[in-house]
Amino acid sequence: MVDGSLSKAHVRVESFDRSILRRAAKPGVPALDDFESPAEPLPFWRTKRLEELDRDEWESLCDRCGRCCLNKLEDEETGEIYWTNVACRLLDHASACCSSYPNRHDFVPDCIELDPDEVVSQTYTWLPPTCGYRLIAGGRDLMWWHPLVSGDPDTVHAAGISIRNRVISEVDVPEDRLEDHLVDWPGLVPDGTTLPPRS
């Protein structure tokens, strides 16, 4: 017989200490709080345009692969870019980072400082396809090995994306011999890797 006792029982359950429900959960069965945790906020690279990033966010988008610091040759007639395995004199071959980043223009005046508008317009055709700036500008997410995603700066090396152990310094190569060092890998997505879908 329905006499209102069900509604009273329901009120009693709602007034229980939530910690009791959590402790009462069976092994392998999520506790009540597991269903009610707030959603994690989206990372900045999914919510901001490149031109909206602050300086620290902008710098952190670089995955430190070192590919953009390789010497490249451009066909004057077609504009096609050809990669070499010859690295800038300032590039540290172990870390794949610039050894004098804040002062790099003092030593390499033609080192290019990326401009958000130019990245978005894809003017920089020489950025590797896996570059974080290029991916975000193209409406894609970062790759799994990116330090912002993995939380580990070494995943870019472990994934075989960086220039570590694959390059030589321009100090050892005369400029007129760069054509002897043409390679394809800096401009390619590694085998077995798929770029994230466009959002």
Name the features:
199 residues; alpha+beta; 2 domains; 25% helix
Characterise this structure:
This protein has 199 residues and is an alpha+beta fold. Helices cover 25% and strands 8% of the residues. The protein has 2 domains: 5-35, no CATH class; 44-187, no CATH class. Strands 1, 2, 3 and 4 form a 4-stranded mixed beta sheet that branches. It is globular and about 55 Å long. This is UPF0260 protein EYW49_02240. Belongs to the UPF0260 family. InterPro entries: Puta_zinc/iron-chelating_dom, UCP006173.
Global geometry: globular
* Backbone structural class: alpha+beta
Main sheet makeup: 4 strands, mixed
What's the helix-strand series? HHHHEEHHHHHEE
The total domain count is: 2
Question: Could you tell me the number of beta strands?
Answer: 4
**What distance lies between the first and last C-alpha atoms, to the nearest angstrom?**
56 Å
Q: Which spans of ≥5 residues are poorly predicted at pLDDT below 50?
A: 1-36
Cα gyration radius (Å): 26 Å
Count of discrete alpha- or pi-helical segments spanning 4 or more residues: 9
How much of the sequence is in beta strands? 5-15%
Helix share of residues? 25-40%
Mean pLDDT: 83
Pfam family, one: CxxCxxCC
InterPro entries: Puta_zinc/iron-chelating_dom, UCP006173
Family: Belongs to the UPF0260 family.
Protein name: UPF0260 protein EYW49_02240
